[in-house]
Design goal:
Layout: H1 2-13, H2 17-24, H3 29-36, E1 44-47, E2 56-60, E3 63-72, E4 76-78, H4 83-99, E5 104-109, E6 117-120, H5 131-139, E7 144-145, E8 151-154, E9 159-160, H6 161-171
Parallel strand pairs: 3-5
Antiparallel strand pairs: 1-2, 2-3, 4-8, 5-6, 6-9, 7-8
Helix pairs in contact: 1-2, 2-3, 3-6
Length: 172
């Protein structure tokens, strides 16, 4: 099931009209306009092979960011659901930290009202980031922690993908 949302996000960021039109039918005009900006100035999006905790790599100009796609019908995503999720997050964090990239989680809420995509990153990967990567790090909401020390994403707290696109189109 996750592959469906990986393809959707890949198609959106790559500016593919069929994905943009399908997603934007029920969005607010400002959200719809943001997505449509991708038709003219989009990303090169590559499906990542291997098991580094990265599904996609989005590139535009001299800027790149790795993306791990998660989806759920619940508005809370708990990494503690399985050891695999937490290990995957650790691997992604370390790989991105060493390569000076911003690890990005794209969380798709199934049957969400409005823009269903939200973006997050880790709170502890900002050291060493420069330029556009530092701006992205500062802009993205951080993955939370429970009292027990487990990672958690609350969909409502994430950055709307449409807001990210709008910001990215203005700043970059």
């Amino acid at each position: 099931m996750g592959d469906i949302y990986e393809r959707e996000l890949k198609g959106l960021l790559a500016g593919e009209q069929k994905f943009i039109e399908k997603l934007t039918k029920s969005l607010e005009p400002s959200e719809r306009d943001a997505y449509r900006k991708l038709a003219g100035k989009h990303f090169l999006v590559v499906k990542a092979g291997g098991s580094f905790g990265v599904d996609l790599l989005a590139v535009r100009g001299n800027f790149a960011f790795p993306i791990e796609v998660k989806s759920s019908s619940s508005d809370v995503f708990r990494f503690s659901k399985s050891d695999k999720l937490d290990d995957q997050a650790d691997r992604m964090r370390v790989v991105c930290e060493h390569s000076l990239l911003v690890p990005t989680y794209a969380y798709r809420l199934k049957n969400a009202p409005g823009d269903p995509w939200r973006l997050f990153t880790f709170s502890d990967v900002g050291d060493g980031l420069e330029g556009r990567h530092r701006l992205l790090f500062r802009r993205l909401p951080k993955i939370g922690m429970t009292n027990e020390g487990n990672r958690i994403m609350h969909w409502k707290d994430g950055l709307k993908l449409s807001s990210f696109i709008d910001y990215f189109s203005e700043v970059f």
